[in-house]
Amino acid sequence: MRGLRPVRVVGIGMHRYQFASETPFPAIGLAALRAALDDAGLAWPAVTSACIGTATLGMAAGRVMLRHMGSTGLEVTQVENASASGSSAFRLACLQVASGQHEVVLALGVDKHGGAQRAAERDGLPRLSPAADLPLVQFALLARAWRESHGVTLADMARVAVKNHGNAARNPFAQFRKPRTLEQVLASAPVAGDLTALQCCPRGEGAAAVIVASEDSIARFGLERRRAIRVLSSHASSDHSGAETAFGVVETVRRSGAATLAAAGIGPQDLDIVELHDAFSIEEIIYAEALGLCPPGAGPARLRDGSWEIGGGRCAVNPSGGLIGMGHPLGPTGIGQVAEIVRQLRGEAEGRQQPGARTALAHMIGLGFVAVGHVLQRENAA
């Protein structure tokens, strides 16, 4: 984040992503928050601003939840940006610290499966069909187009799910904890087009919390600087003219990723870890190529030779299990990506550690489309 104060992640916390339950959202969100405070070694009053990412809970969810921690007068901002809600909340938290407005800021994503309604269904415009705006339908069409024009096979798409379910099986915060074979993925129930059930992310509930802080506050509170991970860049954008469909989102990802990396002063070859939006298996292949992790058309080969596996090559893609394996509760998803990256860069991702990880990219898209990316890096300072 050039020209601004350095920002570091000092605390992370998660509530496991899970299928819908009777647990109230404050209990889920506060479990993640308390874990982040404990991880950072901070007391609640040290946090002077909270950015809450949620897509389904309704108005004032942040204050309803945080009042149980005690009223300290902190600033509370609620952020909704579809699947990128958490990513956008984290970006806002980083900017508040980087600009000097606050010293210690919480970014927390929380959601329960339920009452979200897409604004596109209320814009007063006629639709080609009732399903025209459903992401599942759009990405099933995208998958079929990539099969026909780029030679992506059914097995290529299924390998994304095999890898990510395998990673999620080693992640205690993941919604799915069972490894899957190629045959199981291909044989699972058809959902739309060539996509089967195990190639689509589950919805549910969960929470993720990340605390960011300035250099001054790290020193003032005596925090462990060795575990404080630097946020090198944060970038947000939306689609360009002609890119309002699932086909155009590929260009949105390409431009957003390039801008995020350029702001950090690095290239894709410098990345050790990428957490990206894989709500449907085809997305990981296309977006990884768009982000520059390999030449166009080479994604399937990277999956076949294990280059994107943990420990399998230069860059591990979705070591958390991604949306397909870890889950996609919307509000927490982008913050959960950051928490996974921080855990990896600290060397604390027990059972799924990418060896020698130093630099990572978190990238999410949201309906519309919007794109939000962050680069984080472990520094060698004591």
TrEMBL record:
Q: Which is a Pfam family this sequence falls into?
A: Thiolase_C_1
The Thiolase N-terminal domain extends over 22-178
Source organism (scientific name): Falsiroseomonas selenitidurans
Q: Which residue numbers delimit the Thiolase C-terminal domain?
A: 247-369
**Top-level lineage group:** Bacteria
What is the protein's name according to its record? Thiolase family protein
InterPro entries documented for this protein: Thiolase, Thiolase-like, Thiolase_C_2, Thiolase_N
